[in-house]
């Protein structure tokens, strides 16, 4: 789990609203996926429902914090969730989930005067779910506050947006990102940590997801391909070994993003002729990355092409011939 780091401006806005006399009942936490919006929502909800002198239950068990998220996509995945293991979710939050939440809102909060409803993510609501939620936003029960986690604000209906205060989240600064990753995944080897920070684009969730792929050795091999070339194919062999014989789609995508970022990071240090080769190789990687989820590429051939694109930047005897 990502430790909540940064977002000082958002905390200041939230706490100023808490301290006010008429806090808005609906909040949209908007920003691309992986920035820590859901973690923020849980922590903010805990501050919202806490009252002086009222003992609070441990995180995850508060009766006045209701979390709506996509359900497990099968009975087997539901069992994984019960066991505390990673599980696959359905793509959307269905209308029955929203209606069940609304039935619970008929009663008063359990411990205090306030309760929070977190929807993660509101842009994953089914059409019927959106209409049902709109009714609650139009006539919110007393003491009920809604925190809508939204990855793509443009997908949310204007009628929902107009009834909420929008709080925008931005990529973390480099130092905050490193602190979040180190707290969530301590003890990473240096190459994996470097790669995760490089490809995450300020998103702690993306950094952690990448780190879990354990591509440190592949990252090191790709960096050497760009600087040394690969006339005898030895580095491409190292890359294939690091990736494994049967990488899944997520691993292939992580490797493609790594290769792309290595090229991007090399641009400030190269001369004009090399810059042209970097741009050409980068464009080809972008094309492959777009095609990879659609086409069933042979992993070995794909690795050879990616390795060749990286090696071409070095312009060794191999690429000059």
UniProtKB/TrEMBL annotation:
- Which InterPro entries does its entry note? DNA_Rep/Repair_Clamp_Loader, P-loop_NTPase
Q: Name one Pfam family in it.
A: DNA_pol3_delta2
Originating species:
Novosphingobium cyanobacteriorum
The source's domain of life comes to Bacteria
From the Swiss-Prot or TrEMBL record, give the protein name. Answer: DNA polymerase III subunit delta
Ranges where the record places region Disordered: 51-84
